[in-house]
Q: What sequence folds into this?
């Protein structure tokens, strides 16, 4: 569960609620990892209150502050027994510097493998991809050296995640990364928005499907057909990135990460229009019957039409109070 | 010539210089249309000085301030005799409100048709497309109603141009427009950057080709394969825009607007690498000769190799001072 930062904590709380539900609701044992943050205790207090309000049974802090701490058996046991893991925002390089390649980092990866929901917001979102945006500047135009990449936890393979995407104008830097690494899929998540990645069986095969919830969008850059000069662009020059396929996905849309295609949605039906079509369809069927009858016996038809004129109107629209 | 605003006026002046050259250099008669601007006289003074410094013979103001003015025969005659037309920045809705659909507007279109270079910066860029961004907010995520479209002059058909693209974060609004109007090509031009559109013969057919100069990039959104819910997205909700093909084009790249594809570039040759390859190639040719000789007469080969060891080194690198 990849959250773009600044998830709504006070009003609708869509994302936090969905996380607690996915962690088991009343049976949820949630481990909060606040290592990215410079605040620590305060951050734990906030998420403890939030997750308990949504009904979680237990909220436990797992707060390594050094690579030594990340070998602590008690912390690792907590992760092993958690039904949900939540990584807070802050500095993703601090988080990965302390956690990646340690038994504690391995415990997060293992929990994810056995189906425990692992969520993270902001820095805690960035670290989930195989390749992590370490830091970098804003701007819509991709430029050489505008950002740095480090290794993430790899919960999501062959990808690079960016967050606060709309709010901090991070189009350019994500485009720069996928131009330099066209095997990766770029995933930009807006604030108060989450990309939920689940495994689904599609035609007998296992696919990773990304679903969007929240107020903003998830932007995907698919560079598989890119033409680029990223390997020779100099200093901080703008980079050529031609032929990137762009997907801007609002709440309710789903994207198949395995095939890199949008999952088709059912169309919304307009009830008024449906009522009009039902009436037209009734009229058409009658007209077809009349034409057939006229072919068979013109006289019989004239008699029936005379009767019809005096009686039934077309059927009522299927919705009471529908106007046209 | 579509300039994204804030073109460099003091230092390298790449764009203004190219405009004057395209207008005829020393023979250039340039008409400046400052109508978008609220300044007028000052703006004319600045561009008059700039174009004269680049060697233009004449710079003449064409400044209609009402639709009545836009019927003035003297102004229209100036446009008819100009070898270059330059529309300044300001408010593109003011410019189109005064000029579009008037004899003066028609004179600009006619000049463009007969091959006179028509340039515009900022507002003067926006008005060149068939569909014009009237105004709208910033942001990377496309949202319903975040911008308004009006009619432009249509020098560039089936397109919508946006400017200050990187600097004012206008990704979202341009994406919104092409989602609602997938017959259009979206063209976003950064500051101090120009998209120069020229007609070229490609395989016997007339193509419009866009070439980029300047410090930033030109971003193109091709929505021809889009899947979108723009027709039913409510209020200010984020819009689904899946499958848009994105091209970020820095200086030196060319894009065929007719086929909507990147024009392939010659690869830059690294001189050091070329020198190394020349040496390797010489060695390989010798090795091939030696192998052939060994097959023919092992004894003759041994004699020749003994001689060779004492004499010629491989040829010098093709560039003096090249290192490897």
A:
């Amino acid at each position: 569960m990849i959250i773009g930062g600044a998830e709504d904590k006070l009003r609708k709380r869509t994302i936090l609620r969905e996380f607690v539900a996915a962690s088991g609701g009343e049976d949820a044992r949630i481990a909060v990892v606040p290592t990215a943050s410079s605040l620590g205790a305060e951050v734990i207090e906030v998420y403890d209150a939030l997750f308990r309000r949504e009904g979680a049974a237990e909220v436990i802090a797992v707060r390594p502050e050094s690579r030594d701490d990340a070998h602590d058996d008690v912390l690792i046991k907590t992760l092993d027994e958690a039904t949900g893991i939540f990584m807070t925002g802050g500095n993703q390089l601090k988080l990965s510097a302390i956690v990646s390649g340690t038994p504690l980092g391995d415990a997060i990866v293992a929990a994810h493998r056995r189906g425990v929901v692992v969520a993270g917001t902001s820095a805690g979102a960035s670290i989930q991809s195989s390749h992590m945006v370490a830091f970098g500047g804003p701007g819509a135009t991709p430029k050489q050296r505008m950002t740095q990449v480090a290794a993430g936890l790899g919960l999501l393979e062959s990808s690079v995640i960016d967050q606060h995407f709309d709010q901090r104008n991070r189009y350019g830097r994500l485009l720069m990364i996928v131009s330099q690494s066209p095997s990766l899929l770029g995933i930009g998540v807006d604030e108060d928005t989450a990309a939920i990645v689940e495994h689904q069986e599609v035609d007998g095969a296992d696919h990773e499907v990304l679903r969007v919830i929240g107020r903003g969008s998830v932007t995907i850059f698919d560079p598989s057909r890119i033409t680029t000069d990223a390997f020779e662009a100099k200093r901080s020059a703008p980079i050529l990135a031609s032929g990137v396929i762009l997907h801007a996905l609002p709440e309710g849309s789903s994207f198949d990460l395995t095939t890199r295609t949008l999952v088709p949605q059912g169309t919304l039906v307009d009830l008024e229009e449906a009522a009009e079509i039902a009436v037209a369809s009734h009229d058409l069927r009658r007209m077809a019957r009349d034409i057939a009858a006229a072919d068979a016996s013109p006289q019989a038809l004239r008699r029936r039409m005379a009767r019809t004129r005096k009686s039934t109107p077309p059927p009522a629209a299927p919705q009471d109070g529908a106007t046209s």
Notes: Chain B touches chain A through 42 residues (CB under 8 Å). The longest strand of chain B covers residues 193-202. Residues 316-324 of chain B have pLDDT under 50 and may be disordered. Chain B is about 30% helix and 25% strand.
